Amino acid sequence: MNRLLFIFALIAIFSCNTEHNKVPNDLDLPIISGEEAWQDIANNKVKVYYFLSPECPLCQNYAVAMRELKNEFPQIEFIGIVPGKEYNSEEVRKYLIRFGLEFNTYFDPDFELSNALGAEITPEAFLLDQNGKVLYSGAIDNWAISLGQKRTLITERYLEDAIAARLENREIKIKSTSAVGCFIQ
């Protein structure tokens, strides 16, 4: 009997972990910046969603890394997501312009996408395949150790490695990490 309970507990744990694995088909997020409506980005491209908060220091500090990844991988669609209703369009546009983030950006006012993917932190990155299935989620790299504490040298480039593996049809070795930043509220 104990063995059976243990097996059911494992099944429950693993089924909870897979519940956040795909973008819902019926979302319609309002655009903040860019040219494509939400439905127009539902194409068959591999995508990276960055969950962002304009006032989060790490969202500001990681702008360089986000720009570099967009330039390095032009075949990937990079998309900004601002969860909640804390910021207005003008505040987000100023943040995007100030930090040179040139990708379509959308509000997730009711946390529909945030909840579907299990996003909890800004900045947090999600690499999705052309069908909207999550291939990688978490930190961009290991530069930020905790809030206010950073490494002098980046030794793990989680998102970059995951993108490269996907594009080269290799297995993504690290599929999930813990993001460091500001909590999504």
Features:
185 residues
Helix-residue proportion: 25-40%
Unreliable sequence segments? 1-19
**Widest sheet, order of strands:** 1-4-3-2-6-7
The number of E-state strands comes to: 10
| Secondary-structure element series | HEEHHEHEHEEEEEHE
Taking all Cα atoms into account, the compactness measure Rg is: 17 Å
Class computed from helices, strands and strand pairing: alpha+beta
Q: What is the residue-mean pLDDT, rounded to a whole number?
A: 88
Description:
The chain is an alpha+beta fold. 31% of the residues lie in helices and 21% in strands. The chain contains 6 helices and 10 strands, in the order αββααβαβαβββββαβ. It has a 6-stranded mixed β-sheet with strand order 1-4-3-2-6-7. The longest helix has 16 residues. It is globular. The protein starts with a helix and ends with a strand. The N terminus is likely disordered.
Quick summary:
With 185 residues, this protein is α+β, with helices and mostly antiparallel strands.
How is this fold's topology laid out?
Layout: H1 2-17, E1 31-33, E2 47-51, H2 57-61, H3 63-72, E3 77-83, H4 89-98, E4 105-108, H5 112-117, E5 121-122, E6 124-128, E7 134-138, E8 144-146, E9 149-150, H6 158-167, E10 182-183
